[in-house]
User: Fold these one by one.
Assistant:
Number 1:
Amino acid sequence: MKYRILGATGLSVSEFALGTMMFGAMGNTDHDESVRMIHTAMDAGINFIDTADVYSKGESEEIVGKALKGKRDKVVLATKFGLPMGQDANQSGGNRRWIIRAVEDSLRRLGTDYIDLYQMHRPDPNTDIGETLSALSDLIRSGKVRAIGSSTFPAEQIVEAQWAADKHGHHRFLTEQPRYSILNRTNESAVLPSTQRYGMGVLSYGPLSSGWLSGKVDPTTGNRASLQTRAFDLSIPGNQVKLAAVQQLTQLAAETEMPLAHLAIAFVLSHPAITSVLIGPRKPEQLEDLLAGADAVLNEDILDWIDEIVPPGTDLNVADNTFLMNPAIENKRLRRR
């Protein structure tokens, strides 16, 4: 396992980070098996573990906490806040009231007294980013959080957050966690260049594009497909385009004598902005398969071939672009006001 510096945090993190979204009710309900998977990842050299309060409504954090008993200082531990944790309208977002409660809940579930990287899971259109950064800065000063980051922020909001931190003297986001894969390349246009400009570490997720690039004979079947039926519905033209690209990428992987999943992850790590790529296995055999590709590297010819299949800066299915989910244009009343 190789290591890179996580932006301005100065932390040395493994190129593979273990994502734990699939641990708990959302995926693997066997806590003991999930704990063993975390230990297997650590034994393989992974020292970067990422979770979130919303993953199985806290169950993922609890599993991570169990796995790290007696091992806490061996990992860089990241979690996230901001997505709804209940029906109460105030159990989400980036306001100070919720952040203070959310971090205490995460610390309790994780069984630790500090979080290395605390990330805002999504932008909050209802809260001024200065309010969010102020609360997070207080958490850093209290010692409960070591560094803060954003997740799935569009480029303009990455810039706004950096500007607000500088103007008001708050701690700034030192990392960003964007979606990035061969099939989802929109972030190459503005998000990744913005992170480079501000010296941010990048912990990217979705390298296998929710299973499309896992190497299955039929990528539209499996656990992820059953959870996200629309994302794999072949009656949607964009998904047909993705399937055609996957078939070409499968041929490319075969010609390079490399499993498609290894090629997909190596592609993500080849981008100069990326610090670490999240792998999110559900079962032990999936983890073992992914770990086997830790040393995979793509040469320029292979990268050029990928560019011919999926042009840089594009998402093959426009519906995959998370930045289209914008309150300013989704709500007709706001568009016309």
Number 2:
Amino acid sequence: MGYPETPPERLSNDPTHPDYHPCLVRVGIRFDGSVRSDVCRYDIKRGLIVIRSGKMHFGEVEPFWRWDESRQERRARERFDQTRGARA
């Protein structure tokens, strides 16, 4: 089945955060027109990104898929979704 056409509206790379999902490594973030590689969390509705240093930035957030997932990554994601519940 794979990922949906667009990434989730909110995502975090912190396993204790409610918006955590392991697919964040597959999501690229374009913030105010430039691609950022230091994003730890984002929220499209609020126009918010949190970078590694913990600073918050507000602006236009546009997530995109970086590449197709491998079979191993897909199986790991499906196992994660079954145990924790799918996040969309």
Number 3:
Amino acid sequence: MNQQTPPAAAVEAVARIKQALGPKGWLEDPADTLKYRTDWRGRDVGEALLVARPASTGEVAEVVRVCAEAGLAMVPQGGNTGLVLGSIPTEPRPAVVLSLDRMTRVRSIDPDNFAMVVEAGCVIKAAQDAAAEAGRLFPLSLASEGSSTVGGTLSTNAGGNQTIRYGNAREQVLGLEVVLPDGTVFDGLNTLRKNNTGYDLKHLFIGAEGTLGVITAAAMRLMPAPKGRETALLAVPDPAAAQALLGRARELSGDTVLAYELMPRMCLDLAIRHIEGIADPLSAPSPWYVLVELATASPIDDLRAKLEAILAEAMEQERVTDGVIAESEAQRAALWRIREEQAEAGRREGGGVACDVSVPVSRVAGFLARAEAMLREQEPEIRLNTFGHMGDGNIHYLILRPLAMAAEAWQQRSYDLVDRLNGLIAEMGGSFSAEHGIGAQKREDLVRYAAPSRLTLMRAVKAAIDPANVMNPGKIL
């Protein structure tokens, strides 16, 4: 690492952290810390004096106290799968990465209360499995659920694939345990549904990206486990047809739509080209597709009949031109893999800029049409992969470099295209960051598009809780 020689106070603080955590609780060699300092896309590498890996809330609190006393910056980190430079050091000041990857326990499950308490380093998939063993559903579901952690997901308030049914991460939280920037432990870890005793402080830390404290554990709500599930990949002529189908599917199914993902043909092309084992499930290509999944907790609810009725009506109205219904769990997984591998396929394709945007659900089709026309007017040869959670209005907007354009020219050109896209989103009442957060990458956009009163209040909260700016500095504000 090229970090300047730290002052004596920092050296002493690092020594104290090592002693407090023991030999298994820290990493210092640059080769060992590299993955903790590297952004998921592999483009940016930060610098850190140490990677602290506490195994308990008490150890987290001790690390935070030591760092705060020495004025060291702290960068809380979950699975490090973020896409906006929010979970690695980015500021030119001595920093400690505070990884929660040893705090993975499921502390408790109360099936009758439909609740569980998990530590922040617990991977989403592990939480899902633990809930399933208890006969319940942990409703958070992300493409990166095999590596994303509960704490990191709450810190960005990610939504995922099932937001249409269950809501964002915020809506799954009953209580939080958080270590504040001075080392104090905020104990808000309860599993009550009703608790009207003043400010609901847990919401300060959800979506705060580690700038106000370190989430160490969360009490999460559970749902009845699905007893039936039906999944289909449908070919549709355009997003307008998909949007009309969405409302009708919710009505005809009795609002049992669990996921509703929109994908252009580019999704299949990239997945087939870059991801081993993926093949086109339909006999002929379509300009657009919808991946729809219905689920119910009732064993007597005939989802297949509902899905077939939805398809029959949609095909009669020419909203759907072809489709395939998964006949096994393996087929279902194969359909979902097309969608879930888009981030990796896009990364392997290279030369693109990824935007995570949202508009009201009723405006998704109009937004896609206006955005494509606007961007192609500026750069006719760009390639677009615009996919995502149509059911909640969140589109992952990937703008790929024209094949004939040099990489250096594209880097400059892409800034202008993204700026124009964000302007259109603001005009349509949307958000330039639907679920990935702000991090260090989108701070200027936040200043440009957020209401001044909102920024003033955010800065006041930050100053009140973290006046020394030691907790994930350089992120959001």
Number 4:
Amino acid sequence: MRVLIVDDSTLFRKVVRDTLAECPGVEVVGVASDGKHALEKIEQFHPDLVTLDVEMPILNGIEVLRQLHMRPVKPDVIMLSAMTDHGALATTQALRLGAFDFVLKPNHSKLEDSCNQLRNDLLPKVKVLQERRHKQAFPETNRIEAAPPIHPTSIAPTVVDPSKAKVVGIGVSTGGPAALSQLLPKLPANLPVPLLIVQHMPPMFTKSLANDLDRASNISVHEATDGQVVQPGNAYLAPGGKQMKVVVHDGQKKIQITDDPAERSCKPSVDYLFRSIAHVYGGEAMAMVMTGMGDDGTMGSRLMKRNGCMVVAQEEKSCVVFGMPRQVIAAGLADKVVPLDQLHEIIQTAGVRGVTRCR
């Protein structure tokens, strides 16, 4: 994988270069200190991946992405973003413009700590891109080798009726902002169920994403707050760096935001949310696991499935990363495997039966 590093900080360019040097099969072919030179070096070196700073002189990262977006052949892009309101706003915009993912710029007092953070955050994403490129280069071989084994599930077969669902829980990670921006605007304002969404993101970034999705959608999209009443026609996005669950309080279903520990390195966690949905709604819910790295959502889907809920997984071709849905499918939990552009049709089948007694 040929990589171009773009950042206006000489020190940070070196830190990124040293980090990528630890990844087998990666070659840094060049560096650039601003967006103008980045576009020139992309033309010169044809990199497979660009690590792109958000804020730069002359031409910033968003402007670079806009120009790349118009090209028929373009590299994958991982954004490097500061933990600021402006950085969050620009990063969510970059993800909508096609950036693969982003990592936060380390801000530790010790250089060693910054290097360790970047190593832990950046290298797994680079490795996922390497695997994806390999599959694209050798599709027939990888279709055989990489097909997930479908293990017999220990859960008794159930006849799933999506119309009885009174809530849809959605778990999504890498590729999620772009996927959600395609999914949510297709839903009608009178959607008879609420959506509870976990998108793996740090603090501040989920607020910016929720605002963007709300402007583009007919339903109301919120970054969830503690104590909110869960209502139909609304989507509640778990705040970054917190856990979100649904509880019953004073006879109403409400959002509860907690500082409980991360689960499988995820905070917010899909499993954490899905457990609460299974507890509060019983079998009157739907689980949907979309594009993302890792296996968050599998354990929660298993519990929801045991209660008789429908479990839906996004199909591989429409995923940026087929990690989370693949694990759900491989565990034998998915009732339906659906392309991104058809997920809204499944959601619209929820709640059409009308009001029934909750378990």
